[in-house]
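Researcher: We're teaching a course module on how sequence relates to structure. For the next exercise, students receive a sequence and then see the predicted structure as tokens, so they can try to spot secondary structure elements on their own. Here is the exercise chain.
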Amino acid sequence: MSLEDRAKIFVPFDPLAGFREALRQKEREAEAANLEEWEKGRT
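Model: And here is the predicted structure for the students to work with:
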């Protein structure tokens, strides 16, 4: 087996491409919404 073929074995596999970034975006949106609600309650 060539070195190039062996290297292909270790290529990262991400079956849900983009899922993690989409989840992070939703978390940021939820945090922003929570912060807005909290700030409304303070005034």
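Model: If you want an answer key for the exercise: Helices lie at 3-9, 19-42. The chain has a mean pLDDT of 87.
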